[in-house]
Design a protein that fits this description.
The chain is mostly helical.
Length: about 220
């Protein structure tokens, strides 16, 4: 009878997956926010966002529905000076880093969507790595489990990218790797990672639709 039961992953493998989700959502998001703040310091952010060139770029992204109304409200609150990157989710941070921070796709690949070679340790390359390693982790979402070997490999890759962007997170990363997580916390971080992936998929879809519309207008 027992042989007919499904092969459920061990609790340890479930925890491995949740820890990777937490590393990406908590530390990954924080280091991306730090990177953004280093380019656009918080005290001057409202001035930057309202500058003609940046505002025009953001309006274009809103028109393409890359930015949704909730994100727009966080960028332009009723009191302009109250805007804070602390209120930006990781999807919004990624959009801003790619579009209003003077960054370009990694020279090594020429793309925001290709994994850079190990030799490329630029800021842009490590931003890309965090997103693509997120995809690698999300690939295990169906079973919400990761074996120890895969966990250690992904943890090392993600940690290296995070530390390249913010060297002060070593102690936090070490603690999170072994810190106990209750089922509620595991579910919380798994959902946040899933939401991040789904938000990115929506953006890709919106950009694809915009490109199609431009092509149709060109050929009319």
């Amino acid at each position: 009878m027992a042989s007919g039961l499904p092969d459920f992953a061990s609790t340890q493998e479930n925890t491995n997956y949740a820890r990777l989700c937490r590393l990406l959502v908590d530390v990954g998001c924080t280091v991306l926010r730090d990177t953004f703040d280093s380019i656009h310091p918080p005290a001057n952010l409202h001035v930057v966002l309202s500058s003609p060139s940046v505002f025009s770029t953001l309006q274009s992204l809103r028109k393409k529905r890359v930015l949704n109304p909730l994100q727009w409200g966080k960028l332009f609150p009723a009191v302009a000076s109250s805007v804070s990157s602390a209120n930006f989710d990781v999807t919004l941070l990624m959009v801003l880093l790619r579009n209003i921070c003077g960054l370009s796709p990694p020279v090594s690949t020429g793309s925001w969507d290709k994994l850079p070679p190990d030799s490329d340790n630029s800021t842009e390359a490590n931003i890309v790595r965090i997103k693509l390693y997120r995809n690698d982790v999300y690939g295990h979402a169906t079973k919400a489990s990761v074996d120890d070997a895969t966990f250690n490999a992904l943890w090392q890759k993600i940690s290296s990218a995070v530390l390249a962007l913010g060297s002060g997170y070593g102690d936090v990363i070490s603690r999170l790797k072994t810190e106990c997580m209750d089922p509620g916390a595991e579910a919380h971080y798994e959902k946040l990672l899933s939401d991040w992936k789904k938000d990115d998929d929506i953006i890709k879809e919106m950009l694809g639709m915009s490109i199609m519309l431009i092509s149709e207008e060109f050929f009319i």
